[in-house]
Amino acid sequence: MIRSELIQKIADDNPHLFRRDVERIVNTVFDEIIDAMARGNRVELRGFGAFSVKRRDARTGRNPRTGDAVDVEEKHVPFFKTGKLLRDRLNGDA
């Protein structure tokens, strides 16, 4: 599902809301999650999962085409850990 499909689904399920308002709500939620992660905070949505930021150390990598050594800088990457409810539903336990 992509963002526009999510917006449409929420708008269809809530006919009393205008589509533009649903779009603003969805964008606000995503923006808040992104902003919290940019500050280094963890975002937990109970039953769904938790978003966090992991730090990857600098290392020496290899260029796959030439085989030359390449220095890879330290970086921060998003990480998602599923919640128990989501895992259970995916595995048919619920």
TrEMBL record:
Pfam families, per database record: Bac_DNA_binding (PF00216)
Superkingdom in the source lineage: Bacteria
Cross-referenced InterPro entries: Hist_DNA-bd (IPR000119), Histone-like_DNA-bd_CS (IPR020816), IHF-like_DNA-bd_dom_sf (IPR010992), IHF_beta (IPR005685)
SMART domains: BHL
Keyword list, A-Z: DNA recombination, DNA-binding, Transcription, Transcription regulation, Translation regulation
General function of this protein: This protein is one of the two subunits of integration host factor, a specific DNA-binding protein that functions in genetic recombination as well as in transcriptional and translational control.
Family: Belongs to the bacterial histone-like protein family.
Subunit structure: Heterodimer of an alpha and a beta chain.
Protein name per UniProt: Integration host factor subunit beta
Organism from which the protein derives: Paracoccus maritimus
